[in-house]
Every structure is written in structure tokens, then in C-alpha cells.
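PROTOCOL LOG
Step 1. Enter all chains and additional molecules of the complex.
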Amino acid sequence: MDHPILEFEKGRPVKFTFENQELPGYEGEPIAAALLAAGIRVLRESPRRHRPRGFFCAIGNCSSCLMVVDGVPNVRVCVEPLRAGMRVERQRGHGDIR
Amino acid sequence: MKSVEVAVVGAGPAGLSAALAAAGQGASVALIERDERLGGQLVKQTHKFFGSERQEAGVRGFVIARGLAEAVAAEPAIEVRLSSTALGYYTDKVVYLEEPDGLVKLRAERTIITTGAAERMLAFPGNDLPGVYGAGAVQTLMNVHAVRPGSRVLMVGAGNIGLIVSYQLLQARVEVAAVLEAAPHVGGYLVHAAKIRRAGVPILVSHSVKEALGEREVRGVVVQRLDSAWKPVPETEATIVCDVICLATGLTPLTELAWQVGCKMGYVPELGGHVPWHDEDMRTTIEDIYVAGDCSGVEEASAAMVGGRLAGLSAAASLGHDRRVAEMKEVAREELAALRAGPTGDKIRKGLARLRGAGGSG
Amino acid sequence: MSESRLGPSETLRRTGVPAEADLDGLKSALARPAGMVAGPMAVLECFQRIPCDPCASSCKRGAIAPFADINDLPAFDPEKCNGCGLCVARCPGLAIFVVDETFGPDEALIKLAYEFLPLPERDGVVAALDREGRPTGQARVVRVQRPKSKDESTVVWVAVPKSLAWVVRSIRVEEGRLAQEASRES
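Step 2. Run joint prediction.
Step 3. Record the structure below.
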């Protein structure tokens, strides 16, 4: 982003998948930022009423942004760093911890 | 088990200052931060700081953060632990830390809690829709990760955070539809308000959110006017098209660690909610535990830096370190008094008087 | 130079826009002493007591007195001011402007802090906005001063019709007018 005050240093460009769709991102940025840059804001569905949820605090406090990453549920994608080849899925309801 | 004289939990402006002050007195310090970087909320601040030159007035927030982080890196007595979350404080002064490689136990003679504060939620229908974000979240996305939060934002709250983040949104070339404020006056510095008004952003005082619109994501918002008793006035609803509703209606101190340790807490609205009781040396009711920054009372970064310094000096002095400590503490107290002397300091002075007068509650 | 302002007006506190009542105090404080050469002069649109003092040390001519209490309003001495604009670049609130009503036979010059992209170009034309962000016409860009330090703001000098010297306080760069502003995304 061109910015009047800040200079940004992003990690190397990588690819990851979201619900079988391949998306671009930068290594090390929060998964939620990469999703947002791709226009994806609905990150999960609430347990009882299946309401769409996104992130809220973006610093790992509020638990709004929990998704399934590489099969692991309840990942706070607003702080979890993106790595190449990650599989990201919307979490539906409570995480399934096996 | 690792052992250190002073553990500082949270590396925002207060924690960084506390660590530097304690190390400057000769204490060994462990600076614990759950994020991958030092600086806390300071790294996102693009505006030039207020306060006096002693607190780096005129310097941009993220530049101050960089300076503090560099000073910490250059200080051999400070051990920095990033991606390290303090889980609790237990008998024999042991702090448990969760880190990527596993659990770490750290014994600390003194612990300074500088964990900051977090955005308050606001209750309205649709407030859980994707697109309702805290102001801090919007700042993180724009100023740290270079991602625009949306294309048209409705800002709720005309305190300093709401006004500053609105300006930052304009700098990131995101439209700000309006800033709502429930009170009849702008709450933040009027110069911040003037900057965004000059850029054509309306400020609607005595207004609040009625509901968020959108099925799967925010597509707009219905706002309403409030009367002098802060009650909604019927038939004053108006719809504003936006894809982000940004909440900047106040911060609440993050005090889980203080509660867990057993510090006496006080509920003081002027300080943001529940805060640990603390004296003029920033010491809590638990002898070895100190606090500073927003978790001790929501204020400003300048005050957080000075308060952190005071806590670091006090903790080090209590261990016998003394390199003109009394003099430096006096200077810090004078700086805090100066920052709080004007009308904008009324709230914090009242809050602290209330906290100390009451003696805290369970 | 002592201050005896009554504080920000009710209008300013409600809207964030300084009202005539706030500005009148400023105009009278700037009334030029007899015998003084006309020219550019700093206008400090700072009406609220907040803890803030970097403007004082930014001035190399001592036109802004050192602060006894950092919550005071700046104490400005027009006799010492040459309109250089160092304070414009320094003020954290972007609240200081330089105004020169004698710039040209029909034009006044305004120096203002500008922290957006795209930056205007010298000799370019921009929209001139008032304190509410409403366009009042066009302004000619006379100079764009990039700061030496990232902590200071870029200062843009614009020429406006004389009658708007106390009205124009912001600009908008019209995207279509800048030749090198290719439509870059992100």
C-alpha cells in the first residue's frame, strides 16, 4: 500500500487455500489479513444460530476469528502467521478436537 | 528454572519504559510479550505525539516505539521473550509462560504488569456481523499489515482514538462516512476533530448506532439521534451506507493477571473499569507486584511511558538498586502531574483519587 | 504576549470546526503593530488546553514562548514571526498555518501541513477547502516542502483569492489532474 507516512515490509509472497480456493498472501502476516485482502470477511459460523462471524479485536483477545487451519480447530487467525500451503477452512460451530 | 530480578509482562510503551528504567538501575530484567514484536499499540500510531518534549512530543508514535525497542535491544540486562504469554503467577514468585517451544517457568523477585487495555464492545442488533471491528483492529490491519479494512467506514466514538483512526483511514485512502458520538460534544482533542472536518468527514454528536444492516456482512448502519438524557429520539433514524462499523467507544483494562495474583481491585469508571489498586510508586497490594500503563488506568501513551518508568524505578529500588533513584522518581512524578494538570487530565485525576480514597474493593 | 481566551467555543466543541468567536481572538492577536513590514504570519488555530508544547521549540525566532505549563495555549508574538513555517511542519495537531495576505495583488498565500497521498505538484491546481471540507474554488500550488525528518509534516503552499485568506485551510488533490498518478491499486 502506498502510504504518506509508513513504509511496509511484507514477507515473501506465498499461496494458501481457503475452502478449496487458492489465494495469495505474504508469509508471516496474520491469516485474517490475507483473507481480508482477498475480500473474505466471513470466517466462521456461530455454534447455535449459525450466524456469520469475522474478527473483532485483531490482537488475539476476543475469540471471534476462530478457524480450522491444517485440520486444527480454534485457531485465532488474526494473530496466526500465514505459511505457504496452509489449508484454511471456516469453522462451523465448536471446534472438533480429536 | 530461570530466575530474574524483575519480570515485565507486556511490552507496550509502559512495559518498555519499565524494563529500561529497572535495567538502568542495575536490575536483571525479563521483558515478556505475547506478540511477535515489541511496542504494543504504539507501533500503529502514525500521528505526531503530544505531551512535552520529555515524552517525545512531535515524534511519531511508531518512531517512538522503534526507539524504545532499539534501546531495549542495546541493554544487555534485559532479556526479551517474544511470542511469550504469561499464563499466571504462582507461589514462590513463579510466572508461567507459554511459548512456541513449550511451557517456561520464570522466577521473578518483582513483577510489573503492563498488559494494556482492549476495545469495548457496543450492544446493538447485528453487532456480531463481519465488518464490525474495534478501532485497534482497523489500525493493526492498515498500519501494520497494509490491508485496507474496507472501503467505507462508519466510526463510532469521537474520543481521541476514534478521531485519530478516522484520520489514519483517510491516509490509507479509505472513505470515512461519518463519526458518531453519543455525547453532545467531541470527546477527543479538538485539533484531531478539526483535521478530519477539514477533510470533509462529518461528526455527528448526540448520535448512536441503532442497528447494523447486512445479512452475512455489514452493508450499512442505521443511526439515530439522542436527546439530552441520551435516549433515542423517535423518527430520527437515518441509514448510512458502509462496509465497516468501527467501534472506538472506550478501552477496558486487561487485568486478568492482576486478578489471578490476588491484587485488590477497584471499579473506577474514570479509569476504564476494574483496575488494580496501586500507590504512588505503582505498587499493588501484593508486595512484589507493580502495575503501569493502560491496565492501571486508561490514559495516554505519554503517561504510560512515564508511569512505566516510575514502576521500573520503584521495583528496582525495592531490591536495593539505587542510582539516584529517588531523584528520578520525583522527576517522573512531576512529569505525570504536568501531563494531568490541564482540563484533559480531570478524568484521570478524579479516577485515581477515587481509587486511592476508596482503598479498592474485592 | 499573554493569553486570556475563554476556551474553545461551544460550536467548536460540538462540531470540531472553529467558529468566528474562536478565530476573532486570533485575528485581534495578530493585529500588526505599527511600522511592521507586512508579510507571512503564523496563525495558531489552537484553542483547547491540552498537554502539548513542541511548537515552542520549533521556532528559531522565539515567536512562540517556552511553556510554563504544557497545558497552556501557545503564547505567540507576531513581532518576532517571519512566517517561515517551521511550526506548521512541527505541530502534532496540524493546527498551525501561515497566511500572507500581501502575496500578490489579488492573491493570498497559505502554508498548510498535508499528510495525504497523492501529494500535489508545484504549479498544479488543487481544490481549496474550508474548515468543513467544503470546496471554495481552486488554489494554485506554489511550493511543496518535503520535511527533512519523517516526524515533520509536508507543508504545501497554495495561492488563493485574497478574500479567502481566512477561509481556506485544506486542499484536495484532484486525481485526474496529476499526470504521473497512474491508477495504482494498493
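Step 4. Note key features.
Residues 29-92 of chain A form a domain with the Ubiquitin-like (UB roll) fold (CATH 3.10.20.440).
Chain A touches chain C at residues 1-5 (CB under 8 Å).
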